[in-house]
Amino acid sequence: MELFLHYSLIPSLFIILVLSFLQRREHRKQRDDTSHLLGNRFGIIIPLDFVGTFSNRWSYGIAFGATANKVMFLFSEGYQPLHIPQWAQAFVLLIGGMEVGLSHFPFFACLSSEFRLVSSILGFSYSLIWFAVTILYIIQCPHGQFLGKYETVMFYWPSLLCLAFLLGRFLHMFVKSLRVHLGWELQMEEKPFLEVHQAEHVKRLLRKARLQETKKSWFQTRVYEWDPCFQFPSRMIGTTVLAFICLYLFIVIEFCMFMYVRDELDVFEGELENYIASMNQTGTLTPVILQVKELMNVSKGVWLVTILPASLTCVSYLFHILACYRKHMKRLWAGNKHFLPLKFHHPSSSKSVVAIARYSGWQIAYILWGYLIIHVVQSLCGLMIMYSLVLPVVHNQGLEMLQGLGIGTLTISIVLGLMILQVWIATSFFLQPKMSTADKQKPLALNNRKAFHNFNYFLFFYNVLLGLGACLSRLLISCILGTWLIARIDRTIMQNGYEGADMGFSAWIGMLYVDHYHTNPVLVSFCNILITGHRERRLQQAIKYWCLNQSAGPRVSARSRTRWLLLQTLVNNPKLVMLRKSRPGHSSREFTQILLMGSES
């Protein structure tokens, strides 16, 4: 498959050249440039619009899914075509990323090309080649070393499913474009500047708010509410689809490694049993060996059990990130930036442009590494539960376990009770009463100052010891939350004031701003009104000039017509006279007076 990845560049470049030849350039260069010999052919083709594409989203997402195996190949740093020093590894990975992108470029280019008939034929042929080679590879090597039977099928069935979908999509494109070419169907209109959901969003803003809203279901209130006036761009759909498939492949790879490590631990456990048998269970290391065997067995079981909750956590993060994207975009559209840290209210334009290129790849990497870290943390928590609650019961030490658990719970309860008691004493004795019965709490005004100072003095020494536990709890909670939220690129895990050090969160904010500036429905609607009005005015002007050319009466020069319109504007708006630009030879005011005198006469 790696060899075919290199050879697939040949048909890929051929398809790119064909589509580039069909694509016409809008603006020609100067005659002194040799590129004018090409005419207006060989225009630049794009795989997809990463900012403003809302149509054909799932086709692009499935095309991203077809690259999952190659992305995981790069993620594992298995791309080693050359033997180079370690310091140049970044350049090799960059070349590998460019090669993977170039080999899969025809999928996206054929989906987004305007020449539907040719692009559907080329896309179908290229997808069929990849599909046939993948099937051939699975038939030749169906089994593997770690999972045994059908291991290759487990790795490649998502890519096969995506390629099969692309084959059907290109076939549908071919049939539809052929019917249009034969005149059996009308040709579809060009991509609209203003999407339907954007127009509906603006209409909803202009409508009066309803007095009584419809009752929402539990799912809409607690989980997710579908909004018909909002659509996720193709970039978000493609990133989510690719992240799902890469997460599945990563879990399969991790399970293969677990099987390998488990077999090695079984061999090591057999050697330990042979040692114990040779010593007749009387050796000095026998208790230690038994504990090591127990630790290995518990670790294997806990690691296997925590695969499901760790994977479900990352899957829920993917859906939650989509929900946060919609929520954050709507807040930015409404001009609300209070949910962002203060330093991100005016981000750098160049960093934001780079951020939208980084986001998709970083989101997938964060999910994969986040899964591994969450899995490790959950396994450690499982080991703690096993050694603190389960194993004591297995070893007939349940009473001692309950006694220790009760003492620990009582100690923590007393500490928390003393902290709550301090707050109650401060509320009851050291604050002045409410100034109004409508106040929610007492004012921050001291009362019984002498007793308050004695209260502070005697609790000073106790709070030193209490602060030690609070510091350790702060460290523990920060570690747990940091590792639990490591896969959430939409939420920073840094302290307040240090958010800029979180590169993933910075990429998220930059991506939000780029989408906000380029896909804001109000802004796009305003630009659509300007463009539509300009086209209508040009059309009316063309019709008017055509009528003037066809009439037998006297023709009016463009200069006279412009002066007449200028006169009408100045008569209706006298204040504009002071704002006019002066002309060489005489001032604008003199010129205006001449025009006004001419109009009066």
TrEMBL record:
Entry keyword annotation includes Repeat: no
Domain of life: Eukaryota
Transmembrane parts of this sequence: 6-22, 58-75, 87-109, 121-139, 154-171, 241-261, 302-325, 366-390, 410-431, 459-486
Record key words, sorted: Cell membrane, Membrane, Receptor, Transmembrane, Transmembrane helix, Transport
Protein topology in the membrane: Multi-pass membrane protein
InterPro entries from the UniProt entry: STRA6-like
Coiled coil regions, renumbered to chain: none
Subcellular location: Cell membrane
PANTHER family on file: COILED-COIL DOMAIN-CONTAINING PROTEIN 180 (PTHR21444), STIMULATED BY RETINOIC ACID GENE 6 PROTEIN-LIKE (PTHR21444:SF17)
Name under which the protein is recorded: Stimulated by retinoic acid gene 6 protein-like isoform X3
Organism: Acinonyx jubatus (Cheetah)
Name of the encoding gene: LOC106981241
